[in-house]
């Protein structure tokens, strides 16, 4: 069972809007996707660490499946635009990485941290209307975030 403990934003909530810079230096807002696509919004601790790389590459490898399900994948960490650009390029990531310097969006969502120190790994599935349909939090089972997201998207179809 997925843990939602410590998560401020819960299933059934309207996902809070935010605007952040992408790995390409463009500006993206969550509201840009409303009425268009579902969003798989995943918070992760840090670019180029083993667990985060495994998670990002698993999202990459399933990206076409997410697109077919009518969803866009957005990854968020506090890394800089520059760091995201290098990480994205190195691992050929086809989806958007967003730079949340200072962690304001992470705080807005209440995305859990581990022992109050390390940024947690939390995934939110947001439908086309902007409603949170699923929250999954697991620091160690990085690849399970992809399975959980796909299961939720497929159930909604």
From TrEMBL:
Keywords: Antioxidant, Disulfide bond, Oxidoreductase, Peroxidase, Redox-active center, Thylakoid, Transit peptide. Residues 9-157 form the Thioredoxin domain. InterPro entries: AhpC/TSA, Peroxiredoxin_AhpC-typ, Peroxiredoxin_BCP/PrxQ, Thioredoxin-like_sf, Thioredoxin_domain. It is found in: Thylakoid. It is an enzyme of class 1 (oxidoreductase). The keyword Disulfide bond applies. One of its GO terms (molecular function) is thioredoxin peroxidase activity. Its EC number is 1.11.1.24. GO terms for biological process: cell redox homeostasis; cellular response to oxidative stress. It holds the Pfam family AhpC-TSA. GO terms for cellular component: cytoplasm; thylakoid. Its main location: other. It comes from the Bacteria. It catalyses: a hydroperoxide + [thioredoxin]-dithiol = an alcohol + [thioredoxin]-disulfide + H2O. The keyword Cytoplasm does not apply. The active site is at 52 (cysteine sulfenic acid (-soh) intermediate). Belongs to the peroxiredoxin family. BCP/PrxQ subfamily. Monomer. Thiol-specific peroxidase that catalyzes the reduction of hydrogen peroxide and organic hydroperoxides to water and alcohols, respectively. Plays a role in cell protection against oxidative stress by detoxifying peroxides and as sensor of hydrogen peroxide-mediated signaling events. This is thioredoxin-dependent peroxiredoxin. It comes from Dictyobacter kobayashii.
